[in-house]
User: Fold this.
Amino acid sequence: MNIAFCTFVSLSCYGGIEVRMVEMARLLTERGHQVSIYATPYSYGGRKVEPEKFLQGIPYREAWRHKIEADVAYIYYYSPLVWRVLFSIDCPKIAAMHPAGILSKSSLRGWLFKTIGSQDLASFDAVRIQSPIFRFKHNHVFRIPDWVDTRAFTPLQ
Assistant:
């Protein structure tokens, strides 16, 4: 399977989400999948690392606009509508609800999410959340905490 990870921030900042993305990409590659990572050049806190050093040959592209060609796209959902500007995607999409800042009541992102979040998420085939803190309507929401060892735990469905 050809999997695209799409993120609004450069892997060069190498914070929590970026580190987990690299780990997931490596794991999926080891399991025989083709993985590519698409990011913007935006790097909060400056560029701390060279992403290619950690990716072990996994294709990585930085640009302000990407055309994604894959079997499935896993999109780090930063804010309603932002992903539509950054990524042109013509495959099944999974919204990854990682940034809790989207729930802020005093930010533009928080206001947008409260106002149009459910409508924007409706264009995704599935939504992955880590905890029940996110509130929105969608038919396919999966609550999967980071790093569930499926050798020790078996999915119920």
The radius of gyration is 15 Å. The chain has a mean pLDDT of 86. The chain has four helices and nine strands.
